[in-house]
Design a protein that fits this description.
Length: 336
């Protein structure tokens, strides 16, 4: 019995996920409207700019340079993130539209166009005894390139018509709201980098706070548009199953490709975790920039669900990788 409880504990949602669910509940019961929604929208835009400024300031150039030489690994991760995922999303369309609303499928497809996570990819790679410097570089490159690639993919494949901005407007909005603060943070890293590194635990609240603000305003608008009349509990479960299938396919293919191409065990762990993640921290702000407010709640619902599923599944997988590495006497030490 204790072992069963221990196994179930691995799948327990983290504190932030619980707060995220509470935010959705508050938005359902007390949605913001009118002038309050407009003010919160403006505050959210500023906080998102601050978020990407801090991302730029936190990114160590030394870590990036140290991992950049591993180009085969990074190319495989980027292909998984921006080629494999979108192709799978498009292939899912005939079946997905039978069980999901068009808006939820649009959100699922948007999820497939997003960059990889940074923090969780690196943390899981370290837990699984993978190549941590390469994970830092690969995840960071994915997020940086996603500023350009995601809006292009969204404009080409996800949206047709009024629900999003044109490609030029989308890229310009992403550049102004996300890339410019990011570059400013990188340029100021020599000045504020030490302070940022010392206060990383505190600064995570900026990350989480920006996501919660966007989620609250997005779901407030969606609730006003009748979100929970359109999405039944059964459909929510179905969406979860679709997300699980999508994640399982990507995990299997990245694991197969890394072994087929002759990568080391440490690189294999990095490829699996960096190539299978989708970023909630980047996805929610990007959705706010790319999509109309009325459709935002339905768009980010698949992203939120996939985020929790990927964390729970990959946390268990990371422990399996670590046990495998520990059982192999020839396993090389991994840089922390």
């Amino acid at each position: 019995m204790p072992s069963v409880l221990s196994s179930l504990a691995k799948f327990k949602p983290d504190n932030f996920t619980l707060v995220l669910l509470a935010t959705v509940a508050v938005a359902t019961v007390l949605p913001c409207t009118g002038q309050v929604a407009m003010v919160l929208g403006d505050i959210t835009t500023v906080v998102i700019g601050l978020l990407f400024f801090l991302h730029g300031a936190k990114l160590s150039r030394q870590a990036v340079i140290a991992g950049m030489t591993h180009w085969r690994l990074h190319l495989l991760v980027l292909c998984s993130t921006f080629v494999l995922f979108p192709v799978l999303g498009l292939l899912f369309k005939p079946v997905a539209l039978l069980v999901l609303t068009p808006e939820l499928y649009m959100g699922l497809l948007f999820l497939c166009m997003l960059p990889s996570t940074v923090q969780s990819s690196i943390a899981l790679t370290a837990l699984g005894r993978g190549n941590v410097p390469a994970a830092v570089c690969s995840a960071s490159a994915s997020n940086f390139l996603g500023i350009f690639i995601t809006p292009l993919l969204v404009s080409t494949f996800v949206v047709q018509g009024h629900a999003a901005r044109s490609t030029g407007d989308a890229v310009l909005a992403i550049v102004l709201q996300l890339l410019v603060p990011f570059i400013a943070g990188q340029l100021l890293r020599p000045v504020i980098g030490a302070w940022v590194d010392r206060n990383k635990p505190m600064l995570k609240y900026v990350d989480q706070g920006s996501i919660l603000l966007v989620v609250y305003t997005a779901f407030s608008a969606a609730v006003s548009e009748g979100l929970w009349h359109k999405v039944s509990p059964g459909m929510l479960v179905t969406l979860g199953v679709v997300c699980c299938v999508l994640l399982a396919i990507v995990l299997a293919l990245t694991l197969y490709a890394s072994r087929k191409l002759g990568f080391s065990r440490e690189d294999e762990v990095t490829i699996v975790f960096c190539g299978s993640k989708k970023s909630l921290a980047s996805g929610v702000p990007m959705a706010k920039v790319l999509f109309a407010t009325s459709s935002l709640g339905m768009i980010i619902l698949p992203v939120m669900l996939f985020h929790q599923i990927q964390l729970m599944v990959c946390a268990v997988l990371a422990q399996r990788f670590a046990q495998r590495q520990a059982a192999m006497p020839d396993a090389a030490p991994v840089a922390e």
